[in-house]
Design goal:
47% helix; Sda; Helix Hairpins; Sporulation histidine kinase inhibitor Sda; Sda_sf; mainly alpha
Length: 55
């Protein structure tokens, strides 16, 4: 998987989850993402301002 860029790897992970591929395959991709020091998209922290809900 070293031939894939970080962006391609994240996209592959998202597509694998969307297509509901085998868990073993998804876990392999997830391990590679974590080895690179990245976070899978569903684990990325999102900061929301509270006032954005009050408009």
């Amino acid at each position: 998987m070293y031939a894939l860029s970080d962006h391609e790897l994240i996209k592959l992970y998202s597509n694998a989850k969307t297509l509901n591929l085998e868990n073993h395959f998804i876990l392999l991709i997830e391990q590679e993402i974590k080895l690179r020091g990245l976070q899978p998209p569903n684990e990325q922290k999102v900061s929301l301002k509270q006032d954005s809900f009050n408009s």
